[in-house]
Amino acid sequence: MLPLHYTQTRLSLCDLTRDPTEKTNIVARYPELATSLKSKLDAWREKTGLRR
Question: pLDDT digits over 18-41, tens only?
Fold first, then answer.
């Protein structure tokens, strides 16, 4: 999961299978995945008009 709210500037990536309560941010362990997912989220926001 990569929640990035409109007011949030810090990325958060969680493994919901192993951490369903989202207590451990694993962005540092998977920086390439976090960057890729953020790029996809940014593209979707641009396409749909949902910008920060």
Answer: 999 999 999 999 999 999 998 998
Name the token pair of 29.
């362990």
- Say how far apart CA 23 and CA 34 lie, in whole Å: 17
DSSP assignment of 1-52, as one string?
A: -----TT--S-----TTT-TT-----TTT-HHHHHHHHHHHHHHHHHHT---
Buried b / exposed e across 3-15, counting CB within 10 Å, b at 16+?
Answer: ebeeeeeebbbbe
Q: Look at residue 16 in the predicted model and tell me its pLDDT.
A: 92
pTM across the whole model: 0.70
What tokens were used for 17? Answer: 């299978």
